[in-house]
């Protein structure tokens, strides 16, 4: 029997209407924290050591889904056979997922790679050739970096047998950086708390990502070991489909069968014409499956605007326009900024009520379903911002530059969170890294060397498209809403999971650097970018005048104008086929690899709706959820194969 959906396209979860805090049992919390630690170790080892899949880079990462899939499909059925009354409840399962989902925002390329690289890189990689010593070392705050050369060198090259780990060198920078990140997390969480009702109840955003974990915990009747969706044949057909395809490619590791190149990143590229950017023809099961739950208008807009952007860059290249890719990126950045500002504008009345409630002048406003009261959220937001500004002031950054840098960062974090909540694009990236955007708009000549050094150090977190947990918090609040409300008790545990993830990521990375292979041998993107990329860029800023060209500023405005028209058409004319999100994300880094899977999902969903209507779409859902489950298990098995048969030379089966 097909699964029935609510009008909001979110699967109803058959559970009691009690508050979600009923899932805060000792075993749920212990399991959640255990998996939070485990996925940190798994993700870092897979990236740095095994050279296997990147498990945490998507907005619903494989590393966070894997514990849920195993608990639902393996552990609960086993418990059912031994002690039927002891199976994990829906509320316990979702609490476990909340903790691992929050923790997954930290390890490896998600965040810690750039951060630890930025902290440890300056004193190790400085040389006469790169001019770091003469250019910016006298501006570098010693309390934010590993300022002892031996401590840094041993981290990158391995600890000598007669030395002990230099903890004292790490404690001070770790203390100050972690305090800063907790402040950023609290500010972001406060924003989500203040916007939850606007997005969930007033605008009714679909939150496609939230449908995946909700489907896995849907128990139609009490005591059932498997969720209702996993008791359908189509689910196991989907599971087998993705699982068999991945198994085929894993067999290809041993040259038993030819690997399917369409699953390999950058193996197949489409070139429309000479001087045009290549379009990767690569397929990712997770991207396509999650996109299936997104509105067709958003899917259509995503691949159409990406195609138009590619054509525009190609034509401008053929015409000899200088820096054509950057010009077009600035155009879509303008559309992104306009989209985010518009989303805040339409929330203005609600935000006014939030503020009035916080100061005690709107007692009728209900905030009982939020993680924190509106008053406490406003306090966290305000105190967090004050701490952030004081922190940067101590690091030597001027107030205006701090305001622009952190304002840009929060704007981009909010924009990515809003887009993922509405569009479900799992690999959508920041349109610009906040530190690069700051220099491009303000101009390197207009920023003091001391402030420029601080801007370069923000490379440690400005790349963070996982939004330091902001996106996770938004989706957790939506899932909690479907399960009777999050209540006040959950937020502290989520913050604990994030803090624990930071400590484990740092501790395990230090262990690998000092006691295993040395950080210089770490593979995977992110670490080198944090350790060297930001500081090489700083030398360029200090020695050269860098800012947007007049053409880039012009196209920034043109892009904002285009998306303003798109927003007008979208809200004014119900028949308008294109969504402004498509224009906002067209030039983001993840779009080239998402475009083809999104196109496939759009095509399949459009055909299903045209042939069989909504009923066919509903019937296909178990198959799609099964694809996700099979893919997650397949990625884990590919990691095991790499670990056993290809140690240190694995395969990036899952990247983006």
Report on this structure.
- This protein is mainly α and 656 residues long.
- The protein has one domain (20-645).
- It contains 24 helices and two strands.
- The protein has a two-stranded antiparallel sheet.
- A hairpin with an 8-residue loop joins strand 1 and strand 2.
- Helix 4 (112-125) crosses helix 21 (527-543).
- The longest helix has 55 residues, at 591-645.
What is the CA-atom radius of gyration, in angstroms? 24 Å
Strand order of the largest sheet: 1-2
Q: How large a portion of the residues is in β-strands, by DSSP E?
A: under 5%
Mean pLDDT: 92
What gross morphology would you assign? globular
Number of domains: 1
Element pattern in H and E: HHHHHHHHHEEHHHHHHHHHHHHHHH
Q: Write down the oligomeric state.
A: single chain
Q: Main beta sheet: strand number and arrangement?
A: 2 strands, antiparallel
Instruction: Give me the number of helical elements.
Output: 24
Looking at this protein, list some descriptive labels.
24 helices, globular, two-stranded antiparallel ribbon
């Amino acid at each position: 029997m097909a699964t029935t959906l609510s009008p909001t396209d979110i699967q109803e979860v058959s559970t009691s209407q009690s508050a979600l805090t009923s899932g805060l049992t000792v075993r749920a919390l212990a399991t959640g924290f255990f998996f939070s630690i485990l996925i940190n170790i798994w993700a870092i080892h897979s990236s740095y050591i095994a050279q296997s899949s990147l498990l945490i880079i998507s907005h619903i990462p494989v590393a966070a889904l894997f514990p849920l899939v195993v608990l639902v499909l393996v552990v609960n059925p086993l418990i059912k056979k031994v002690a039927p009354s002891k199976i994990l409840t829906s509320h316990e399962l979702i609490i476990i997922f909340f903790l691992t989902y929050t923790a997954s925002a930290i390890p490896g390329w998600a965040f810690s790679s750039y951060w630890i690289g930025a902290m440890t890189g300056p004193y190790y990689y400085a040389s006469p050739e790169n001019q770091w010593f003469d250019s910016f070392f006298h501006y570098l705050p010693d309390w934010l970096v590993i300022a002892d050369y031996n401590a840094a060198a041993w981290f990158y090259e391995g600890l000598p047998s007669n030395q002990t780990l230099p903890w004292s060198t790490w404690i001070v920078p770790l203390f100050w950086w972690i305090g800063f990140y907790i402040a950023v997390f609290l500010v972001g969480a406060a924003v989500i708390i203040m916007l939850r009702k606007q997005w969930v109840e007033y605008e009714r955003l679909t939150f496609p990502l939230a449908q995946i974990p909700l489907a896995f915990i849907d128990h139609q009747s009490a005591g059932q070991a498997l969720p209702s969706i996993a008791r359908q044949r189509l689910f196991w057909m989907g599971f087998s489909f993705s699982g068999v395809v991945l198994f085929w490619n894993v067999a290809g590791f041993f040259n038993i069968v030819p690997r399917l190149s369409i699953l390999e990143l950058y193996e197949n590229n489409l070139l429309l014409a000479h001087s045009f950017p290549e379009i990767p023809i690569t397929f990712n099961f997770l991207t396509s499956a999650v996109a299936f739950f997104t509105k067709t208008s958003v899917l259509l807009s995503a691949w159409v605007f990406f195609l138009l952007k590619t054509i525009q860059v190609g034509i401008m290249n053929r015409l000899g326009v200088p820096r054509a890719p950057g010009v077009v990126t600035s155009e879509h950045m303008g559309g992104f900024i306009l989209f985010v500002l518009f989303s805040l504008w339409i929330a203005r009345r609600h935000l006014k009520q939030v503020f009035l409630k916080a100061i005690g002048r709107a007692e009728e406003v209900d905030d009982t379903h939020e993680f924190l009261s509106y008053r406490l959220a406003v306090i966290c937001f305000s105190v967090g911002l004050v701490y952030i500004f004081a922190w940067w002031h101590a690091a030597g950054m001027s107030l205006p530059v701090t305001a622009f840098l952190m304002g840009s960062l929060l704007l981009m974090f909010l924009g990515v969170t809003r887009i993922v909540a509405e569009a479900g694009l799992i690999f959508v990236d920041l349109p610009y890294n906040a530190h690069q955007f700051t220099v491009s708009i303000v101009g390197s000549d207009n920023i003091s060397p001391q402030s420029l050094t601080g801007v370069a150090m923000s490379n440690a977190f400005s790349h963070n498209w996982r939004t330091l947990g902001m996106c996770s918090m938004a989706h957790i609040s939506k899932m909690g809403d479907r399960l009777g409300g999050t209540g006040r008790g959950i937020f502290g545990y989520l913050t604990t999971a994030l803090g624990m993830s930071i400590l484990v990521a740092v501790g395990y990375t230090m262990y690998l650097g000092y006691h295993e292979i040395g950080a210089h041998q770490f593979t995977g993107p992110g670490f080198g970018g944090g350790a060297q990329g930001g500081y090489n860029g700083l030398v360029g800023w200090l020695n050269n005048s860098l800012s947007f060209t007049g053409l880039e500023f012009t196209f920034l405005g043109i892009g904002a104008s285009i998306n303003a028209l798109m927003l007008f058409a979208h809200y004014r004319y119900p028949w308008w086929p294109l969504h402004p999100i498509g224009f906002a994300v067209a030039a983001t880094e993840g779009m080239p690899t998402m475009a083809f899977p999104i196109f496939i999902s759009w095509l399949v969903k459009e055909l299903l709706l045209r042939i069989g209507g909504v009923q066919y779409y509903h019937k296909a859902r178990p198959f799609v959820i099964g694809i996700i489950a099979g893919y997650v298990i397949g990625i884990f098995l590919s990691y095991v194969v790499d670990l056993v048969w290809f140690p240190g030379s694995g395969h990036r089966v899952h990247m983006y």
